[in-house]
Amino acid sequence: MGNFLANFVSILAEVLVLAIIVRALLSWFMPGDGNALGRMVAEITDPLLRPVRRVLPPIGGLDLSPLLAIILIQVLSSLLQQVIHTST
Q1: I need a surface site. Which of 8, 29, 74, 84 has the fewest CB within 10 A?
Q2: What is the predicted pLDDT for the residue at 36?
Q3: Domain-wise residue ranges, the chain
């Protein structure tokens, strides 16, 4: 059960990171939520990026919240996997 849970956490973290990267790329090439993919990715990533944006406002017009969110997801994923492996 521990391996399943650790794998689930790892895959979830990877999917969230990928969604954030896709959102950042879409914001450069297709600004706005005019297409279905953009809306779907925004719905997935907004709950993650909104709190980060409150803490880290844009710096010089550059939104660094995706970068910070990715770092936080990676750190939390690593910590959770360590907890899961030590408890099993």
Answers
A1: 29
A2: 85
A3: 2-87
